[in-house]
Each structure stands twice: as C-alpha cells, then as structure tokens.
C-alpha cells in the first residue's frame, strides 16, 4: 500500500507543478500587457495619447494622458497632457471632472502661457454641467433650470475677455457671454410671465424693470416692455401703459402684444410632465431674437 501510494504521488506532483508554471506564465503575460507603456519615453506616450484624441477616443485619450502624468509628473509634456486630459473629459461629457482638472491646473500653474485657454475651457464645461442629459431627453429650455453653473460660465468667459482681451479665445468668449445674458434675461422674463398669469401685476412690474436694468439690450428687452404695458393696463395706469406702447411701436412695431396676441400660454396638459414645468412663453412668441443689438 505504501509503495503504490508513493508511485501515484509522482504524476500528481508533476501535474500540480505544470499547473503552477502555466498560472505563473499566464500571470506574467497579463502583467506584460497591462504595463506595456511602463518606462516608455514621454514623447512616445504623448504621441499615443494625442492620436487617441484625433480619433475621437476621448475616454482612451484621458486614461492615456493620466498614465503619462503618473510616470512623468513634471515637465512641459506633463503640463500639456494635463490640459489635453481636461479637454478630453469635456468632450466625453464629463464636465464636472473637466472643471476639477482645470481648477487643479490653474492652482498649480497660475501664470501658464495657456491659462486663457483654461479659463475658456472651464467656461464651456460650466455652461454644460448638469444639463446635457435633461436637455436631450426632455428638450428643456436652458432658462428654465438652475442658473448657478451658467453664471459661473459667464464669469469664466468674462475673465478671458477682461484679463486676456488679445487672446484667440476672447472674441468667442464675448459672443458666448451675449448668449448667456439672453438666457439670464429670459429667466427673468419667465418669472414675470409667471406672475402675469396669476394676476400679480405689481410683481410683474418689478421683474420686468429688473430685466431691463440688469440686462439692457438683451434679446428679450421688448418683451419686458410689453409686459410693463400689460401690467400698467391692468393696474389702471394709462400714462405708463401708453409709454410702453409707444416704445414698442418705435422699436418693434411687429411685436404681437400690440395686436393683442401676446402672451399666449402653453397647453395646460404640459403640467402632466413633472420635468417640463411651465414652458417659456417668451420662446417663439415674439421677434425678440431679431432685435439683439438695437
């Protein structure tokens, strides 16, 4: 019995040894694949990451740039990799991550030669935070949501235009500020229309005047004037109502309020959609967008 057991144990030990060798070899092979970029020159890693970006592989480019930064934490390639990584995050829709990456870069390199671009990119990312999914699914008007991140985007673009007026990003930043101001103005107009629908005419006057004072020459300035005319008419102040009518007749004679066709409120069935809220009466109800810059 002892001899038979000892004879059988030899092939068992051999099999076990072979299994161990196969396991070790497989593990080493996997490790070699995983660490293929380990120790590669920084130039090579940067080129590989940049090619991923050119191919639109934003997540792959982000991860590749991060590996470069981990291996080479200092130097011009690393600085550029940090910038490119933030851009890849923005393009991938990771706006929160992009803003965090940009903030870290600005803290670390506040006088970097590309700092104007970083503020501009932060403005783009902030302008899209918390909005992409909802706007795609329910087509929500941007003026109907929380405006904290768009206001931060406005501040970012303002930094570009004021601190770096000669940069290549200043002109586009100014245009985006105009568009954001119109969103803010429409938000105020929507609030005024909310009060108008409920007959709170004093509140309507306050909101409309705030819009005109805070966002002069916005795309919705004459809608605000029309609301003033409507409010003063209901409040019995014929003098101020006539003043508002004269302003509209001189500056926007085609405004539908002059013909008694504005504002028109949306179909009540929209209230069944908990995400829609009250649709902006301003959108598509006047020729406001034709009057920017008057």
TrEMBL record:
Keywords assigned: Cell outer membrane, Lipoprotein, Membrane, Palmitate, Signal
Entry-linked PROSITE patterns: PROKAR_LIPOPROTEIN
InterPro entries in alphabetical order: BamD, BamD-like, TPR-like_helical_dom_sf
Bilayer topology term: Lipid-anchor
Domain Outer membrane lipoprotein BamD-like intervals: 41-244
Transmembrane segment boundaries: none
GO BP term, example: Gram-negative-bacterium-type cell outer membrane assembly
Location in or out of the cell: Cell outer membrane
CDD domains: BamD (cd15830)
Cellular-component GO terms for this entry: Bam protein complex
Subunit and partners: Part of the Bam complex.
Family of this protein: Belongs to the BamD family.
Cross-referenced HAMAP family: OM_assembly_BamD
Function: Part of the outer membrane protein assembly complex, which is involved in assembly and insertion of beta-barrel proteins into the outer membrane.
Protein name: Outer membrane protein assembly factor BamD
Organism: Stenotrophomonas terrae
Gene expressing this chain: bamD
């Amino acid at each position: 019995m002892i001899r038979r057991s000892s004879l059988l144990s030899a092939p068992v030990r051999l099999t076990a040894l072979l299994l161990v060798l196969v396991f070790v070899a497989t593990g080493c092979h996997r490790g070699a694949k995983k660490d293929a970029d380990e120790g590669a020159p920084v130039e090579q890693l940067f080129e590989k990451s940049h090619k991923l970006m050119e191919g639109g592989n934003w997540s792959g480019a982000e991860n590749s740039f991060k590996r470069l930064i981990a291996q080479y934490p200092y130097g011009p390639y690393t600085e550029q990799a940090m910038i490119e990584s933030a851009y890849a995050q923005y393009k991938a829709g990771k706006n929160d991550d992009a803003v965090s990456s940009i903030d870290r870069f600005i803290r670390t390199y506040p006088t970097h030669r590309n700092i104007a671009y970083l503020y501009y990119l932060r403005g783009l990312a902030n302008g899209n935070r918390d909005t992409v999914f909802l706007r795609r699914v329910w087509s929500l008007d941007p003026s109907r949501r929380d405006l904290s991140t768009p206001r931060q985007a406005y501040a970012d673009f303002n930094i570009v235009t004021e601190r770096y007026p000669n940069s290549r990003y200043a002109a586009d930043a100014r245009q985006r500020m105009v568009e954001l101001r119109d969103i803010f103005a429409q938000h105020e107009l929507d609030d005024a229309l909310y009060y108008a629908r409920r007959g709170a005419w004093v509140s309507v006057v306050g909101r409309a005047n705030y819009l005109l004072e805070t966002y002069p020459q916005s795309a919705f300035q004459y809608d605000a004037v029309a609301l003033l005319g409507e409010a003063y008419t209901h409040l019995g102040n014929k003098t101020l109502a006539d003043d508002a009518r004269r302003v509209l007749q001189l500056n926007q004679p085609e405004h539908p309020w002059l013909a008694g066709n504005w504002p028109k409120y949306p179909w009540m069935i929209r209230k069944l959609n908990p995400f829609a809220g009250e649709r902006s009466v301003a959108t598509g109800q006047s020729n406001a967008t034709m009057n920017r810059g008057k």
